[in-house]
Specification:
By secondary structure, the chain is mostly helical. Helices cover about 75% and strands about 0% of the residues. The protein contains eleven helices and no strands.
């Protein structure tokens, strides 16, 4: 780790020979080709049109690697030194985002543009460090080619991803995000915020003890979070419904359930009863309106209908808790 941060044991770019610069270019093209193919495979099931764009980019990187290897064979023979980007100080690195699933369309396209810009800069600098005419010409040509990759991606995009397909892919990605994260998270937030109102405020007004109220709220929130999380993960594996990973949905639901309950339980860490209760009431107000906003924003529920369902329902549960606690 320290060697990567401080450059211990790594060569400076200025110290590389022409053979090592060619070897570094070859390994970089190999890596970028693999990354583009990983992008394509990660997108193929849900976004086949965009996957074909990255297949084309990978093919272009393979052609660059082939001409670099041929030049190395002519100038230096068959043995290519083992030198990679992590062996050189101040050389650009590839973040492992391409290993993460699911891949986001916009994020992948932005990362591809960054990769091409970095490769363009490398070839410009490499061309300045070689005196052989044929090598310098090739590196300069590759710099131009990397710069034109944006145009290549644009051409491939026009061919494989016209605007109607691109908008459809974006809509599909948004739908998947809602099904996997927003919907279970919203259900958890609603359950945690509303279902814990009655026990927390009943305990508060029945005991007048802020610490005991906090313990009731903590246990109710954590218990509800665990229950909701396991229920969400167990009842649907997502394969037929298309709702995504059950683990992700379970975590979203469980965490947001606990957050919803803890929001109005934490104020009871304040020892003064009425201060704690006033703050908890204000938190409840914010929670309920936030739920209504999320319903309107992501679930396309009419705002006034969402307010009626959530704010009115939550207020009734809160009133029930206060009445029971004072009984």
């Amino acid at each position: 780790m320290l060697s990567r941060v401080f450059g211990f044991g790594r060569r400076s770019f200025a110290s590389l020979t022409e053979q090592e610069i060619l070897a570094l270019a070859i390994s970089s093209e190999e890596d970028d080709g693999r990354i583009y193919r990983a992008y394509a495979e990660g997108l193929r099931d849900e976004f086949p049109a965009s996957a074909r764009v990255f297949d084309g980019m990978a093919d272009e990187e393979d052609s660059h690697r082939a001409v670099l290897i041929e030049l190395h064979r002519k100038r230096f023979g068959e043995r290519i030194p083992l030198i990679r980007r992590e062996h050189v100080k101040d050389y650009y690195e590839r973040r492992p985002d391409w290993l993460v699933r699911p891949l986001g369309i916009d994020k992948v396209r932005a990362q591809a543009e960054t990769m091409e810009d970095q490769a363009h800069r490398f070839y410009l600098e490499a061309a300045q460090r070689t005196s052989d005419a044929s090598t310098r010409k090739l590196l300069g040509d590759l710099a131009v080619a990397e710069k034109s990759h944006q145009a290549l991606a644009h051409r491939l995009g026009l061919k494989h991803v016209p605007e109607d397909v691109k908008s459809g892919e974006a809509a599909g990605e948004r739908r998947q995000f809602i099904l996997t994260y927003v919907q279970p998270g919203l259900a958890g937030l609603m359950d945690g915020s509303v279902s814990t109102l009655a026990p927390i405020f009943a305990a508060a007004f029945a005991t007048g003890d802020t610490w005991q109220t906090f313990l009731v709220g903590l246990s109710a929130s954590v218990g509800a979070g665990i229950s909701m999380g396991f229920t969400e993960a167990a009842h649907d594996d997502g394969k037929l419904s298309g709702r995504g990973s059950p683990v992700k949905r379970g975590l979203s639901s469980g965490i947001m359930t606990s957050v919803g309950g803890l929001g109005h339980a934490l104020p009871y860490l304040i020892p003064h009863f009425w201060t704690a209760t006033a703050i908890a009431g204000a938190v409840v107000f914010v929670e309920l309106w936030a739920i209504a906003f999320i319903q309107n924003r992501y679930m396309e529920t009419p705002f006034f209908r969402a307010v009626l369902q959530v704010v009115l329902g939550g207020s009734l549960v809160l009133a029930a808790g206060v009445l029971i606690g004072n009984a």
